Amino acid sequence: MTSALQQPADAPAPRPGALAIDAYVPGKSKAPEGVRLRKLSSNETPLGPSPRAVEAFRTAADNLEIYPDGTARALREAIARAHGLDPDRIVCGAGSDELLSLLALGYVGPGDEGLFTEHGFLVYRIAILAAGGTPIVAPETNLTADVDAILARVTERTRIVYIANPNNPTGTYLPFDEVKRLQAGLPRNTLLVLDAAYAEYVRANDYAAGIELVSSCENVVMTRTFSKAFGLASLRIGWLYGPAGVVEALNRIRGPFNVSGPAIAAGAAAVADREHIDRAVEHNARWLAELSERIRDLGFEVTPSVANFLLIHFPDEPGRRAVDADAFLTARGLILRAVGAYGLPNALRMSVGSEDANRAVLVALAEFAKGPQLG
Ligand SMILES: Cc1ncc(COP(=O)(O)O)c(C=O)c1O
Prior knowledge:
This protein is α/β, with parallel strands linked by helices. It has 12 helices and 13 strands.
């Protein structure tokens, strides 16, 4: 494996599994020169963060020479207040990505297995491999996690099961009854991670992010993020609600100051600004429905989504495939997300953007739908 790095045979070698990782490739963020960029590739909110969060961030800039509170107490308490939780059962991280990795580091070792689903979020595989474990993939049904398929792949070596609910990049979700059935079918010593990065956006009556399950089970954790509906992706803030044992383990493993002072301050202000979140969710609900309908009307299949993005499928015909649509849209400054790495080579994921960006995509897709592009 080290030969791939072209380094001497006696050079330090990373642990087994590290070089099996395909590094995560973020969504594109560049448009051709001279073309206005509309980035719809990373599920960021078009409304930006709460002005109160920005103000808290600016104020925190006065104290950058001081280490932050390593327990992120102010942030945990603000989250706890907003959700009616015990702050001692919350762990904050540098994005929920960090927490997803720390969970693998804490609970998965060489010889252990970590499970996730066919089109699940790519970070799960990376986290399991980085911890030295073996990734196991359960097939999905209709681009949706399938509880029976997951349970059928559980062995005595399964230490962790990750479910993104709703899932990225499909936008599909598991009703809470199904999540409960999954938990009930897992061995008690297998950790179930409910990654609810998009929970704020979901309006389905049969959905729950998982707080209730965490409260009643010793093997369930829920992760959340400030990167999506709260508009603070650049600050890197995630949080986890879990049983006392998991919280204790993570607090031992994590870096002592893993969340920065400005992030703690801005996150605490953001979570208290309910009105701002309501506006973001309202905007999303309106445009998610309209985009889905209008794009279907153009003749493309769209997977039903409950999140702030939608998966658009393209015909398997020369000049009309996802790769062609991607080039066509990119030339117009419209940057969607290619999802080949998720096993969906003929689809693009579009984040719900500003009204202006959404309309620009509809116009461009209508043009693209007319037929094969000749350059
Ligand atoms: C399902 C899911 N989980 C977690 C994350 C990570 O978010 P962050 O590390 O910014 O909190 C993302 C980001 O795209 C995601 O789509």
